[in-house]
Amino acid sequence: MKADLKKETATYTAPRGRFAIVTVPALQFLMIDGHGDPNTSPVYEDAVTTIFPVAYTVKFLSKGDLGRDYSVMPLEALWWSDDMASFTSARDKSHWNWTLMNLVPDWITPAHLATACGTVARKGGAPLLEDVRLERLDEGLSVQTLHVGPYDDEGPVLDAMHNEFIPARSLRMTGKHHEIYLSDFRRTPASRLKTILRQPVEGADA
């Protein structure tokens, strides 16, 4: 039976139009780091071009060699900047740092990733293959919401999350801003894009 990681992980759903406080379990991802405006940075494009061939090759290796099939998950990214206003009011994307991610099951090991990368290398077309790593992320307590619409319309939502909802509940931001792209931007009109916006937090007195 094919595992559906999205259905098995409750935090891959979020309410639209309001913020929810959730506890995100520790999860394992393929990751690639970079910096700069995702709309213009060739490194960002190279990262997207690389991560999905690796993700699908890992999936088919798992199915063929381990007898354990699963659905490839959507693209995700961590975002951070020295000035968090670059995500809300300023929206200066040239200052953004990012980590592109793709969730994989816990049974995938570094050895499986190495085998998959070898297969992808022989086929070519994955320019950042040497930068792909396997890493666990434990975000824990977090605030999240579902944003529907263009990515550039996220600013007011994040401003409300960061500067109103979180401090009003005696919380403070701890980890990196996290986005889960539930829609394929290549096939979905901007007005219908669905994105989970997440911010790890902790108690203000922690």
TrEMBL record:
It holds the Pfam family GyrI-like. It comes from the Bacteria. Coiled coil: none annotated. Residues 20-197 form the GyrI-like small molecule binding domain. InterPro entries: GyrI-like, GyrI-like_CCH_Lin2189-like, Reg_factor_effector_dom_sf. This is GyrI-like small molecule binding domain-containing protein. It comes from Georgenia yuyongxinii.
